[in-house]
Here is the input.
Amino acid sequence: MMAEKKPLLKRVAIGCAGALAVLAVFVAIVFLVVGKMTAEPERVVREFLAAAAAANYEVAHDYFSVPLKEEQPLSVFIDRAERTPSRFAVGELSINSRSIDSSGCELEGTATLEAGTRVPASFRLVRENDVWKLLSYSIGSSD
Here is the structure.
């Protein structure tokens, strides 16, 4: 009776190990695919932050989608950015949550400001004329 259990247990263990290996490969592939698909939106976010940090507000504002430009015209964006310039002084941006679908892309993570403060950061992007544009953004607390 013990002899029969060992081969069964061995087969179950091998099956579980195989299933875990397949799952690990699947997760790795999904992670790589999502990372590759969100690389361009992440580049847009980083360029937006660099332009805003350099007080190049017109360039930063060009990364806005039409709805965000309507909600936050250039003059409003400049006023907000000048009132809280440290918000855009991002030394490091760590993205730890990414999602992309037919309606757009969402990136969430932590921004480490040049002062050393770590704050939550989130960005929603949409495609306009085959170009990724910001639909909304939040760096730290909102105004």
Notes: Residues 65 and 129 are 10 Å apart (CA to CA). The longest helix spans residues 2-37. The chain has a mean pLDDT of 84. Helices lie at 2-37, 39-53, 57-61, 66-71, 74-83.
